[in-house]
Amino acid sequence: KAQTYYNGDANLNDLSGKTISVIGYGSQGHAHAQNLSDSRMNVVVGLRKESSSWNEAEEAGLTVMETSEAAKAGDILMVLIPDQHQADVYKKSIEPHLEAGNALMFAHGFNIHFGGITPPDDVDVFMVAPKGPGHLVRRVFTEGSGVPCLFAVHRDATGTAKKTALAYAKAIGGTRAGVLETTFREETETDLFGEQAVLCGGASELVKAGFEVLVEAGYQPEIAYFECLHELKLIVDLMYEGGIERMYYSVSDTAEYGGLSRGTRVIDHNTKKRMKMILEEVQSGFFADEWMKENAEGLPNHIRMRKKLGNHKIEQVGKELRSMMNWIPDNKQSRPEPEPA
Ligand code: NDP
Ligand code: MG
Ligand code: MG
C-alpha cells in the first residue's frame, strides 16, 4: 500500500530562507509559482527572454528572470517545461549554476529515469507530481483544497530531501488532499503507459472506432458523435465519483447488462497482450528513444498524425455540434456574435 502524507506530515518551515525557482510558466508552472507565492514562499520564475508568458507572470505579481539567472538565484529549482526540451535547457542554463546542497525538482520522472539529465552527486533530486492539470492545481488551491500529488526522492544528498519535497507539496496544496510516495521509475513508467494505452491513446481510439462503425453503417454522424464522444464525459464522471460499479448503478439496467456482456468482446485478452507490449516499450526505453529521435528530426510523424486526426469526420462534426453547447467554457469566446434582429 502506498505511503500517504497529509498536512500534519509536512512543515513549510523546511523551505524557509530558500529561494524556489520555477522554470517554465505553462500548465504546471503558473500553478506552482502562484500557489508557492500564496504560501509566502520566496519564488522566482525562470523563462527565456522571448517567452510570451513573461508579462503574464509579472502581472500575477511574480519576479521573472531569464532561466540561467533564475537557476543561479534558486536553492530549489523546479523544472516545469515540456519533457522533450528539459535536457537541452538543463545543459545550457541550469547545470552551470547548480551548487552543492541545491535541490533539482521535477513534476515527471522522464528525464531522470531515462538518463536525459544526470545531475551532480551533491544535489538533491526529487519529484512532486500533481495528479491533475495545472489549471486544476491552481483553482483547487484557491478554493482551499488541493490536488493529490506523487512524490519521489531520486537522490538525497543533503539528508533532508524528503522533508523538502513534502514541504513543497504542502506549499502547492498537495498535502491537503494527500501525497503518495513512489519512485521515479514507477511514476514515469505508469504515467507513460496510462496516457498511451488508456487515457489518451486507448480512449480516443475507442471513441473513433465506435463513431466510424456507426457512420459506416449509415447512421447520421451527429447522432454518432453524441453517442460515442459527448456522452463519454457523463460516464467518466460517474466512474470518477464512485468507481465502475457506481457508473453501472446509475445507467439503465439495459445499459448495464449490455455493457457487462459486450464490453469484454471489445476489449479482450488480445487487447491486454498489446497493452503489455506497449508497457514493455516504455520499460525498455524504446518509446523514450523514439520520442527523442522524433523531436530531433523536427516531429515529422507527430505533425502528420496530428493533421490526420484534424481531418477525421468526428472532429469536423464535433466542432459544429459544440458551437451549440454554450455551457462549454472555451466555446463562449469562440462563438460568433448573435445576428442583429
Ligand atoms: P507546458 O507545455 O505547459 O510548458 C510550457 C512552458 O515551458 C512555457 O513557460 C514555455 O515558455 C516553456 N518552454 C517551452 N519550451 C521551452 C524551451 N525549449 N526552452 C525554455 N522554455 C520552454 O508544460 P507542462 O506544464 O504541461 O509540463 C511541465 C512538466 O510537468 C512536464 O515534466 C510534465 O510532464 C509535467 N506534468 C504535466 C502535467 C500537465 O497536466 N500538464 C501534469 C503533471 C506533470 P515559452 O513561452 O518560452 O515557450
Ligand atoms: Mg504524462
Ligand atoms: Mg444511450
In short:
By secondary structure, this protein is an alpha/beta fold. The chain has 18 helices and nine strands.
Helical proportion?
Answer: 55-70%
Oligomer: single chain
Structural class: alpha/beta
Number of helices: 18
CATH architecture of the largest domain: 3-Layer(aba) Sandwich
What's the CATH H-level superfamily name of the largest domain? NAD(P)-binding Rossmann-like Domain
* Domain count: 2
Instruction: Sketch the major β-sheet.
Output: 9 strands, mixed
Large-scale geometry = globular
Strand content: 5-15%
Question: How far is the first residue's CA from the last residue's CA?
Answer: 63 Å
Based on CA atoms alone, the radius of gyration comes out at 23 Å
Number of strands: 9
CATH-derived topology of the largest domain: Rossmann fold
For the biggest β-sheet, the strand order reads 1-9-8-7-6-5-2-3-4
Low-pLDDT stretches are 332-338
H-E order:
EEHEHEHEHEHEHEHHEHHHHHHHHHH
Mean pLDDT: 96
